[in-house]
């Protein structure tokens, strides 16, 4: 397989148009088979539900080249399930899980030349998404939808890769109590754009959002869940109904317990507890594990003991084990790795 001529080691997390994308339409109450197409343009009515009332959701996963030269992806069945949850909450039709996984495999196979080589530090980001494509003017769900999958090679989500970042506690909320924080709705990200741009203007890489009901507990960032390491080496991660159930976080809890013999706690994390942690990280498909070195809450600066130079030792072990599983260096738990090529 002849690879595209890209500077793989220096890719950023941005869109590059690849050769093929998957498209399936929902019409008259049923999904058509779907197919791979060349055209990256979407043509929809000016009154489409997605344009008027943001009826859309998406997923994110990655394909990896393994040490022995295969191409795989990581737990796509969980992305299919989460997209089902998103669709149900947004009154959109579910794209069946088995067909979701098949379409992911088909789309990556059609773009193998774009899958970054092993050891390059880059991966192929896979973005399944669905939107309301038919006209609505009264506030109601559309009758027709389009499900698509695009793929694009990406580098690290945060500039500087594994360098610790500085974040701030946001004065804005990411989600409402009993709202849509626990699904991957496009609207959640639209409302995070002002807070993230404001954070960047103030010199912060991300926002730490607090629970919207009491603003006393840690939730997540705009695009990743939190993991904390206690001084005695436990992994703690926030539990809340308004954060996205990260597949990376769920996988790390398993890896910590079963590969690294660590204790794990999924529970509420008061903001006041944060200064007591030894290491802080963000986890997600895009973020992988990104270390946090400093958290600023107005006048208060929380300097994480692991510092601003490098990822701490426990997060490093978790990172090495997770990426080792993804890239085929470490045996994966049953069912985690989907072979593509
Ligand atoms: N939280 C938010 C808000 C996200 O957008 C993401 C990215 O998907 C995550 C957490 C991490 O989830 P996952 O590990 O499934 O990619
Ligand atoms: C992902 O990690 O897949 C996401 O969707 C996060 C997004 C901010 C890029």
Can you walk through the features of this model?
By secondary structure, the protein is α+β, with helices and mostly antiparallel strands. It has two domains: 8-154, D-amino Acid Aminotransferase, Chain A, domain 1 (2-Layer Sandwich), CATH 3.30.470.10; 165-326, D-amino Acid Aminotransferase, Chain A, domain 2, CATH 3.20.10.10. Helix content is 21%, strand content 26%. The chain is built from seven helices and 17 strands. The strands form two sheets. Strands 1, 2, 3, 4, 5, 6, 7, 8 and 17 form a nine-stranded antiparallel sheet that branches. Strands 9, 10, 11, 12, 13, 14, 15 and 16 form an eight-stranded mixed sheet that branches. α6 (247-258) links the parallel β12 and β13 (264-267). It starts with 20 loop residues before the first strand and ends with a strand. The model has no long low-confidence stretch (mean pLDDT 97). The site of 2-OXO-4-methylpentanoic acid (COI) has 5 residues, from loops.
Quaternary state of this entry equals single chain
Supply the number of helical segments: 7
Gross geometry: globular
State the secondary-structure class.
alpha+beta
Strand portion: 25-35%
Named CATH topology of the largest domain: D-amino Acid Aminotransferase, Chain A, domain 2
CATH top level label of the largest domain:
Alpha Beta
Mean pLDDT reading: 97
Which sheet architecture does the biggest sheet show?
9 strands, antiparallel
Low-confidence stretches: none
Radius of gyration using CA atoms only: 20 Å
CATH architecture of the largest domain: Alpha-Beta Barrel
């Amino acid at each position: 397989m002849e690879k595209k001529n890209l500077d793989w080691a220096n890719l950023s997390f941005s869109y590059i148009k690849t050769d093929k994308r998957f498209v399936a339409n929902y019409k008259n109450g049923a999904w058509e088979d779907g197919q791979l197409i060349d055209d990256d343009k979407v043509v929809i009515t000016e009154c489409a539900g997605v344009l008027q009332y943001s009826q859309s959701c998406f997923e994110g996963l990655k394909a990896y080249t393994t040490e022995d030269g295969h191409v795989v992806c990581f737990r796509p069945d969980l992305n299919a399930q989460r997209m089902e949850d998103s669709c149900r909450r947004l009154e959109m039709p579910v794209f069946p899980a088995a067909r979701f996984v098949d379409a992911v495999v088909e789309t990556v196979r059609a773009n193998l030349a774009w899958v970054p080589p092993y050891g390059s530090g880059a991966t192929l980001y896979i973005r399944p998404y669905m939107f309301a494509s038919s006209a609505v003017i009264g506030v109601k769900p559309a009758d027709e939808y389009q499900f698509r999958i695009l793929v694009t090679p990406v580098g690290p989500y945060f500039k500087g890769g594994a360098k610790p970042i500085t974040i701030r506690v946001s004065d804005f909320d990411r989600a409402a109590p009993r709202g849509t924080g626990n699904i991957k709705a496009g609207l959640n990200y639209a409302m995070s754009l002002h807070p993230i741009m404001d954070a960047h203007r103030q010199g912060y890489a991300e926002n730490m959002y607090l629970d919207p009901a009491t603003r006393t507990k840690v939730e997540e960032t705009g695009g990743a869940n939190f993991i904390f390491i206690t001084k005695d080496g436990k992994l703690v991660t926030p539990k809340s109904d308004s954060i996205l159930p990260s597949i990376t976080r769920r996988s790390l809890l398993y890896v910590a317990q079963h590969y690294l013999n660590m204790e794990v706690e999924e529970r509420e994390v008061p903001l006041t507890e944060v200064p007591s942690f030894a290491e802080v990280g963000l986890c997600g498909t895009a973020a992988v594990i990104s270390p946090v070195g400093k958290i600023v809450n107005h006048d208060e600066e929380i300097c994480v003991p692991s510092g601003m130079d490098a990822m701490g030792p426990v997060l490093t072990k978790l990172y090495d084990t997770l990426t080792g599983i993804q890239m085929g260096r470490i045996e994966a738990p049953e069912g985690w790795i989907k072979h593509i090529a």
